Amino acid sequence: MGDIADFDALRRAMAENSEQPEGPARNARAEQLLAEAERLDVPLAVIEALGHQLKVYNYSSEKDKMFVPFARLLRMWDERPEDFDEYEAHSLHWVFKWMSAGMLDQPHIPLASVEKWLGEMEQRYRLAGHSERAVRSAEFSVAEHVGDLARAERAYAAWLAADRDAMADCHACELHGQGTWQVTRGRDAEALALWRPVLEGEFACAHEPHTVLAASLAPLLRLGRTDEARAHHLRGFRLVRPMESMRGAYADHVEFCALTGNEARALELLAERPAYFTDTGHPRSRLEFLAVVALLMDRLTELGLAGQRVPGPAGRAWTAGELAGHARVEALELAERFDRRNGTPYVGEQTRARMTQRPLVDRLPLGVRTVRPAPAQVVVRPAPEVTDAPDLAALLAQARQLSDTLRPHALQAWAALARAAGDTELAPRDRAEITDHEAMGRGPEGVELFERAAALYTEAGDLGEALAARARGAYVRALAGEVDAALEAVTGLYDEALALYADEATGLRQTASVVMSRARILLRHVHEGAGQPAAEDRLARAEQAAREVLALVGGRVADDVRLAARDAEARGMLAELACLRGDGGRAAELFRRAASAYVSAGLPWFVVEYEAQVAALAHQAGDPAEAERALRSALEHGGPYVEPVGRAQLHLQLAEVLGGRGEVVEAAEHAWEAAHWADEAGAGDAPSGAGALGGWARQQLGGLLLRQGRCAEAAEVLESALADLSAKTHGDGAVVQTRWWLGDCLSELGDHRAAAEHRLRAAEIARHWPEQQDHATLAHLAAESLGKAGLPEEAEQAYARAGELWRALGNTPFLVRSLRARGWLALRGDGGAGGARELMTEAVRECERALEAAADPPAREQLGFELGCTHRQFGDLLARSATERAEESGESGETGEEAEDGLIQAAFEAALVQLERAAVLFGALGADGLHDRTGAELAAGWLEADLGRPAQAAARARAVLAAYEDADDEDETVLARRAEAAQLLGAHQ
């Protein structure tokens, strides 16, 4: 207290406080400033401090505090209106609207008081000469809130019919309210049409497009426009996140996640705002938030996650089931308070409808990193005792049918049969098949079960299937690393199977199974011996084994799906062997044949592995079209059956291929899918291996969105990607690229301080690279961001560092640009005009020296253009410094001093010389330099006028008009130059 000495200091302090983040700290400072204002004993100071207090309360969770300062302001107005200046008088009437909405949002304020206030507002606006537009808008809000739809329609029409004046809300806010009414009336498309100018940036304000983006989410989902909804969520949540006062819009984003299969993301949003559960200053937005929390928790409970730990009100731990009940009770109690005040059931009805919504999209990938909720623990109950043999017979028939046709869920069917059978006595053959398939599902742990199955097959009299089971067991041993032992075992089984087949003591299917197991083991033998002296011998044996499979089943594939699968797999083996021999073209052809064979056999889910191999070979061969075809085929035929990690890999590879040929929109869709499936696999939680996929996918997606100019979405995704990326796993190049892209996004969004941080961190990594081009570029970009962030000293250091790097790289154009930038910084900083001129002179000198040494015509042209730009900026800098000097002299009362005037005139003359040199250099570039030349000419013309030379100024204006005599009349630059030249000519003819 007591740190405010005068009114100006108070105003500076209020301006500083206005720039602070919304919340209790800013509100408390506003209260302190009001106390300081009262100590100054200046009525206007108190009025402005009360207005400041009102503003920060309105844009916070403590909206209920607005009424006291407003009542005091209104009393001061009624008693001494002359104490208010024009701005504060306007502000007082403007805040009437805040009070109207504020009363409506507080259920303890009677509706009669709200209506009385509406009348007061109408009377005061009429006395002040304002339109009734704002009054009718407020009346509409009251009618809509209580559910008086007929009155709301009348007020809505009157609102739109009334003239817009200084008291009307901004266009963005009005369109938000109008669109929301269309949504209430079930007209989603009309609402989105009304919101279009706000969504496209034509109209904006402190809280728009924030609220419109949030409000548009559910309507877009209902209309099936999911891509737009996703974009609005990523873009809008970024705007809403730092603003405490936007709990209602925040709730819209949580709701969106709950309705699109993004429950995990919704939980993360709740965790970011624990105070939203309990802040009571704005009951209406708390009601909206709690209703959405209940919706989300009910959704989690429905998914079997009632016991999942979730974020909730502070002071205790919450499960989804517990929070669902708590939020529902709290929301309905709040709704009942509003309804009791309003005398209608409308708020309660709307709240119940919101809490009971059903998902609008099963799954909408968002691209941002989410940690999936832990699945509910599944209690496996003992299978009921089965005594009805026909049920077991049906299960057995189903399992055999799925197994014989190689359906993807055959193993699950056998497992279900095993559970149903329990201890029921089964025939040896049935028990053999159950045991055999259990072994298949066990992997390396299934070796002993294969032996048990073989014994049961033998007991059932099927010696061929017994051999096949043992051969499968041998292959599992090979997969576990016991290749030599497996090969020895399968060799004997192979001989026995061929002997049985020759004696017609077993069938083709059983024999083919043994022969295939041997071929598989021999292929493992090849991989184990890669690079060893006998590698070619192993390759030959494996190839012979694969061809034996083809010879055995050849001509029989149409009769048996299993045999068709053997044929396709053998072709795939031959392809893999061709790869190992380095014959990529032959390998790709064989993989394609294998894939085609699986499709012909009605087994498309087996295609994925082979098409993925074709894509990899095509990539190596520089054939992106074939890679794209193969990846699309893999997704088309096997997508639903591929494990999440595999799906993520396929989508990511396709995104890279499509992005490489410029199809960035479709590429982004696949990157979204890749990120989603990586998260589904839990890959986002692992630092390496499969976990790398989530980081890669988000990094690629962010870059693809940036290429489309969707900077807000890209920034969200790239920030999320950084949580997964590491130099160890992804390489420091990926980390640098991500921060580089993120810096570009943030720069476009106007967050220059954050952009500078990412660019500097990327530059620090690149500093250690042998090639320093990226380091120099990032240092230069960081300097630009630091300058725009209002950090001139840091910007100067970064530009100086970039300049050193550009000099070392021999890149004169960028060295010169860094010097020019430092010149402008010096003009505004400690270096002053003298330091600025020195840096600009150095920039000219560097450019001239490089131009003299350059022999390459393109290089000379580029340096000539850069020299022209340098002279142009040098001239602008000299003129600016002279103008600022003249203004400072005028403020200090020294304008009559001849010496000072002489210095200013000399600076203008020097600036004119620089501009003339720039015009000459740009003129030498012909048509390519036309716009730059005319720009320099006009700047020189204005200087001529300032120097008291109207004839020369007019001559330069005519020269510009002549230069554009035959130019394109639709070119914006041409039109602007003509207009400026005409203005200069008209002023100085």
Kindly report the spatial arrangement of strands forming the biggest sheet: 1-2
**End-to-end CA span:** 60 Å
- Residues in helix, %: over 70%
The biggest beta sheet is recorded as:
2 strands, antiparallel
The whole-angstrom Rg is 38 Å
Number of strands: 2
The pLDDT mean sits at: 90
| Secondary-structure class | mainly alpha
Organism: Streptomyces yokosukanensis
Protein name: Tetratricopeptide repeat protein
What is shown here, in short?
The protein contains 46 helices and two strands. The chain is mostly helical and 989 residues long.
Structure notes:
- With 989 residues, the protein is mostly helical.
- α3 (43-58) runs parallel beside α5 (86-104), α31 runs antiparallel to α32 and α42 packs parallel to α44.
- It has a two-stranded antiparallel ribbon with strand order 1-2.
- It has 46 helices and 2 strands.
- It starts with 6 loop residues before the first helix and ends with a helix.
- It has a domain at 244-364.
